[in-house]
Specification:
alpha+beta; 23% helix; endopeptidase fold (from Nostoc punctiforme); 4-stranded antiparallel sheet; globular
Length: 243
């Protein structure tokens, strides 16, 4: 099913159902929803949908979710030329219109979930003060304490960021969890499969030492699940073709 022929529709009731909002996206036409409190399941539903529906490749510097024709052109170019991850954009210029890297994927997930924040790369995620992250990017610094994390949190490593999908807790002194991310390293399978889910990764040492855990401010206004037990998988957003 092609991405440009789909529209995501979600409706959330607030308190006594007195106020409702709807949001929709179609490739090339994104409606900006209001920033409201979000649950981890809402964020993860968007991430899972992109993983399962978007035939998009990891490209360092990539920031666009294009239509399927452009994405397929990018994927074919990458398959034919097989450039190194950081040289993919220069080798296949068409990928500028349909590709993502890790930090742009995270920003896209939150934006499409209705909790946008200004784009920020992993270097700034690591080096900015907690105050600047909070004021300028709506991101709260949780340090590196894995036990206090929850689904939807961002785990930042040198040059890479992933989203926590599930925390499995402490096993033999090691915290493990499931993650969703855009990747171009050993985790990638084929062009068009740049968004991946990985299970039971060692969170403290996934891509070298864990440098920081960040949480979007929208998640602080919701009742959170247990931090050390598996959480239920979020429901997938309903999809319907554009008429």
């Amino acid at each position: 099913m092609q991405m440009q022929n789909l529209i995501f529709v979600a409706v959330k009731s607030l308190r006594s159902n007195a106020l409702k909002y709807t949001w929709g996206i179609a490739v090339g036409c994104i409606l900006s929803p209001p920033v409201l409190a979000k649950t981890p399941s809402e964020i993860l539903s968007t991430a899972s949908s992109l993983l399962e529906l978007a035939q998009i490749s990891y490209v360092y510097g990539g920031s666009q979710l294009g239509d399927s024709d452009v994405c397929n052109q990018c994927n074919r170019c990458l398959e034919e030329k097989s450039p190194e991850p950081k040289k993919r954009l220069s080798a296949c210029s068409v990928c500028a219109d349909c590709s993502l890297d890790c930090s742009h994927f995270i920003e896209l997930v939150y934006r499409l979930s209705g909790a946008p924040y200004p784009y920020i790369d992993t270097k700034l995620m690591i080096n900015l003060s907690a105050d600047r992250l909070r004021r300028n990017y709506k991101l709260e610094d949780l340090g590196t304490e894995v036990a206090m994390t929850q689904p939807g949190d961002l785990f930042v490593y040198n040059g890479h960021v992933v989203m926590l999908e599930r925390l499995h807790g402490l096993t033999k002194g090691v915290y493990r969890g499931d993650i969703i991310h855009a990747t171009g390293g050993k985790d990638i399978r084929l062009p068009g499969q740049g968004i991946q889910r990985e299970r039971f990764v060692e969170l403290k040492q996934y891509r070298g030492q864990l440098r920081r855990v960040l949480r979007h401010a929208a998640l602080f206004s919701t009742k959170q699940p247990s931090l050390t037990k598996d959480t239920e998988r979020p429901e997938k957003p309903r999809l319907r073709p554009i008429r």
